[in-house]
Design a protein that fits this description.
Elements (H helix, E strand, L loop, with lengths): L20 H14 L2 H13 L2 E2 H8 L3 H13 L3 E6 L2 E6 L2 H16 L14
Antiparallel strand pairs: 1-3, 2-3
Helix pairs in contact: 3-4
């Protein structure tokens, strides 16, 4: 699945002013939140499935429900993941398509730099 750019009105990075120290610190904080293998797997699962309960998500990434719930709370507090209630169930989804695009670009960069092996196109996030 090709993910479309999420910020069509966004100004080209080359035409922006140099990032300020405060902005760099805020962006760095975002990368710190994302720099966790469990959270990346949660994001990847939510990108692929769109909406999952914590139980389904835990089963999909093969982790305990409580561990996944703890990581989801961090993603929610950083406005990366949102919830939707349906009766007694809470479903989690990615709040902004930019998150999926960032994961896609990170995956591509990791392959291009040799950090991970290039994935076959079948089943790969491309």
């Amino acid at each position: 699945m090709m993910i479309k750019d999420c910020c069509p009105e966004e100004v080209d990075l080359t035409t922006r002013d140099l990032v300020t120290l405060d902005q760099a610190e805020q962006i760095s904080q975002l990368f710190k939140i994302l720099a966790n293998p469990t959270r990346l797997r949660i994001i990847d699962a939510l990108v692929k499935t769109k909406s999952l309960s914590v139980t389904s998500l835990a089963a999909q990434i093969e982790m305990k429900t409580q561990a996944v719930s703890n990581q989801l709370q961090k993603l929610i507090s950083e406005n990366i993941v949102t919830t939707q209630r349906d009766g007694n169930f809470i479903y989690y989804q990615i709040k902004d398509n930019c998150t999926a695009l960032l994961l896609q670009r990170a995956w591509c960069l990791a392959e291009d730099t040799g950090l991970i092996a290039k994935a076959d196109k079948i089943g790969a996030l491309d």
